[in-house]
Design a protein that fits this description.
It is built from eleven helices and three strands; from the N terminus they run ααβααββααααααα. It is mainly α. Helix 5 (98-117) packs across helix 7 (145-161).
Length: 244
């Protein structure tokens, strides 16, 4: 410990310092919604991991926003289930429960399968899905496991995007942000994403061939296999964190 600071403290200071670079994204029309957008991205990217306390003073100073604006941004992210307020302790990045994880997959199955089922006649607009598959395959070749996880989530965001609904897109952004918190706890994106690369491409190829029914069946099976695998491993990891 140097200067009374732990390694975790120094890491968080470095993260907040990097956050200051996001100030330019706010421009002159700083709003709580835009601050929330920045913090949401940083949380899902792992700059603020599950369980981390968010300092009003440090973050507000880095972004150059008022305490009231920052608190409103925190409130918005709490509503999205990314943050949690603990009385007399402050605001923390939420740790997702096992029950939450099962519910996340329930929502994903409802939304993603319905998006595929709602497709009309081919050709289907699968450009974003294809880009995510290629990005995932490139990340795998480069052993960039965090990028692999990001590409996989973008693939599923693109699947939901097939519905052509801004509200569905917004819903899935929140759901997948929660899921990303799970993977930050697991800290092993290769194990939980690499096996599904091939299945992503299979779903894409079925849609490119115009067979939405086959793509939906593959997707439904994919999501259930992923839920079972991740839920069991996550339960063990959470129990270990809690000293059970």
């Amino acid at each position: 410990m140097a200067g009374g600071m732990t390694r975790g403290d120094r890491h968080r200071l470095a993260e907040v310092s990097e956050l200051a670079g996001d100030r330019v994204l706010l421009g002159r029309s700083s709003t709580a919604e835009r601050v929330a957008d920045i913090l949401r991205d940083r949380i899902t990217e792992g700059y603020f991991p599950p369980g981390a306390r968010l300092s009003e003073e440090s973050i507000g100073g880095a972004l150059g926003v008022s305490r009231n604006t920052l608190r409103e941004a925190f409130r918005l992210l709490t509503h999205e289930r990314l943050l949690v307020h603990q009385l007399n302790r402050g605001v923390f990045v939420r740790i997702v429960t096992v029950a939450d994880l099962d519910d996340i997959y329930r929502v994903r199955t409802l939304v993603e399968c319905a998006a595929v089922r709602s497709l009309g006649e081919p050709p289907h607009p699968v450009g974003a899905m294809e880009a995510a598959v290629v990005a995932g395959e490139t990340a795998f070749e480069e052993r960039a496991w965090r990028d692999l996880g990001t590409a996989n989530l973008r693939f599923h965001q693109a699947v939901a995007g097939l519905a052509g609904s801004p509200r569905t897109d917004e819903l899935m952004r929140g759901v997948l942000a929660e899921l990303r918190l799970v993977f930050h706890v697991m800290d092993d994106p290769r194990r939980f994403h690499a096996p599904y690369l091939t299945r992503n491409r299979q779903i894409l190829e079925e849609l490119q061939a115009g067979d939405g029914a086959a793509a939906e069946l593959l997707l439904e099976s994919y999501l259930e296999d992923s839920r079972v695998q991740l839920s069991g491993a996550y339960a063990q990891r959470i129990a270990a964190r809690e000293g059970v």
